[in-house]
Amino acid sequence: MFHTSKIEISKSALKQNIDFVRNLIGPDVRYCSVVKGNAYGHGISLFVPLAESLDVRSFAVFSASEALRVLEARSEQSDIMIMGAIDRDQLGWAIEQGISFYVFELDRLRAALKQAQKIGRPAQLHIELETGMNRTGFEEKELREVVRLLKKHPGDFEIEGVNTHLAGAESSSNFLRIHQQIQRFHEHCAWLAQRGFQPRLRHVASSAATFTYPETRLEMVRIGIVQYGYWPTTETKMHYLLNYPRNGNNGGQNNSPEKGKRIARHTDPLKRIIRWSSRVMSVKTIGPGEFVSYGTSYQTTRRQQVATVPIGYFHGFTRGLSNIGQVLIHGKRVQVIGNVNMNMLMVDVTDLPGVKVGDEVVLIGKQKKMEISVASFADLTPFLNYEVLVRLPSEIPRFVVD
Ligand SMILES: *Cc1c(COP(=O)(O)O)cnc(C)c1O
Fold this sequence. Notes:
This protein is α/β, with parallel strands linked by helices.
């Protein structure tokens, strides 16, 4: 099929990110790779085998349909964990496939135990505890009933994990709330353990908490955004740069008086792994005083060269970047002019002589010495870096490069 753009995923950059996290957490903490949202837009079917080639053996998704895609993509017997949606009639399938899933509703727990009994295979459960995010998770008052149900079904389940999710570890403004959550988590874990339910894996930390609250790493961390080369927030990055020694790993507990000086010696250890590019489709010269694209938001001030690129909001290039976005051509930044259309955008190449049809256009990533970062989208629009990435349509062909 013909596509107007392609996405390249760098294996060496991914390796660097994963190694970086692994060095930080050490060999005793399990690395669970979060690949929900089509692997944050990078593409599950490409990303999963690539991560497996770098010895990742544990993947987390949001839904049963994503779990199916990981199942089809994996080439090792990697673990798959569903953190959110699974319908009642998919529970049997998950149990048969050995796919683990969160339980946070008594109904789901009941149905899972019944299915497991019928199939004759234990359900692999992750008991999600409500600790203050107020999204999903068993409330304290429901835990007695959880225990009662489990005791009725010995042999029909294994408690693979007990977990919770923190409500914003990427910002210090949530510090007190996060601390309360961590404390509640341990209280409820202890309560379950007293009743004989000891999980193999306690897991709480996503990318931000892995860095900012190292005590939450426990037996497993759920790493999403960082493995793709992005910090959850600039604050998390600053926390890392200020608190961690250059090559070592002491869990952020470094109290050396030298600490402040170290920042100058740091460079960002994360590498973006995605590169999204297209090609110039048309070039034309327009006289002064003309409007470009729909409406009147852009008017030429002189004789200008305009290049049209076959990428629009349909392809994940948000209309919010009309007149303010930038792309790379010939290793130089050029400005988006006029409104971004459904399938096209226009850029001003007046000061870039020699641009012709077929020249490469980089929308995200590097070209020669320049780079368009996802953060630049996020700075110019209301979208988080997470959101910019997941908007990249799954139809765009994706390739692994070194
Ligand atoms: C998305 C998600 C993660 C990963 O978050 P990052 O900030 O991308 O590391 C971890 N846990 C849960 C429950 C999630 O939904």
